[in-house]
Amino acid sequence: FLPLAIILSLLCMLLAVNWLKHRLSWRDELRKGIRNGEFLVHYQPVWQVEERRCAGVEALLRWQRHDGRQVRPDMFIAAAEAEGMIIPLTRHLLNIIADEAQTWSVAPGFHLGVNVAAEHIQHPDFLADIRQFAARLREKQMIITLELTERSLIHEGPEVANKLATLRREGIRVAIDDFGTGHCSLSYLQNFQLDYLKIDRGFINAIESLEGETPVLDAIISLSHKLALEVLGEGVETPLQFEYLKNHGVNYIQGYLYARPLNSAALMAWLTKKGS
Ligand code: C2E
Ligand code: CA
Ligand code: CA
Ligand code: CA
């Protein structure tokens, strides 16, 4: 048995070393990517149903590596969260957005949505980070919305709620993102002051596949109305989905049907062409 035990423990060590190397490499790669300017921001337009115009955009991070490879956002965001890199990455993102948005010509009240991680909110510098970002854009009079996933809020207590309430008093808005995909407890809806609820694409898809039988989607929409939250449907790809959401009182639509995420220059060209 002895040789087998030795072989097994060697194998374990090898796996551990490999795992460590992998871990270190994600963190190093993310750091290097930030230093080398490999991160870009795309902006996806959002349609305001009642006013029949573009309400604003959501900023979405892209990693275009210098070796030509694109890394999927859900992959590198998860890695950044796991490796303690989400805060530096988000700060980097806010800097890029502030730089780019300086050059935009948009009407006052243009919405700008930014995704933030719960870990960042807990950080002592969170309020300062967001205030500094907002200050850089003050001249543009945009409405800045922090998008938080349901998953990230569910375990958070009064500290996070207080910080968000403070920012809301300063004009920042808060959206609950990917609604319906997190946990089954809805109690946090009462503990946090929110402005918007973004319905996850999965429920929007159901409009087609379930042929008019979408009780969960309908319940989410009426829940947001009862909570006096404005509601957005994300991942809208077909006219049928669009009409359904419109007829059920959804306030905003986001998805490929209206527009894909665009880089800063393409966004300005797109807005000009749309004449808004
Ligand atoms: P999300 O916040 O739910 O962002 C919406 C995602 O849906 C984006 O994917 C967008 O490109 C995609 N999308 C929009 N319209 C359609 C559509 O009509 N059909 C389909 N199939 N997809 C559509 P993306 O850019 O790949 O981002 C994936 C996720 O990564 C985001 O989901 C968000 O959770 C995360 N993420 C992206 N950028 C950031 C960031 O800057 N910070 C943080 N913390 N997370 C980010
Ligand atoms: Ca989002
Ligand atoms: Ca979302
Ligand atoms: Ca989503």
TrEMBL record:
GO terms for molecular function: cyclic-guanylate-specific phosphodiesterase activity. GO terms for cellular component: plasma membrane. It is a multi-pass membrane protein. It is found in: Cell membrane. It catalyses: 3',3'-c-di-GMP + H2O = 5'-phosphoguanylyl(3'->5')guanosine + H(+). Keywords: c-di-GMP, Cell membrane, Hydrolase, Membrane, Transmembrane, Transmembrane helix. Its EC number is 3.1.4.52. It comes from the Bacteria. Residues 23-275 form the EAL domain. The chain crosses the membrane at residues 1-20. This is cyclic-guanylate-specific phosphodiesterase. It comes from Paramixta manurensis. The chain holds residues 242 to 517 of 524 of the full protein.
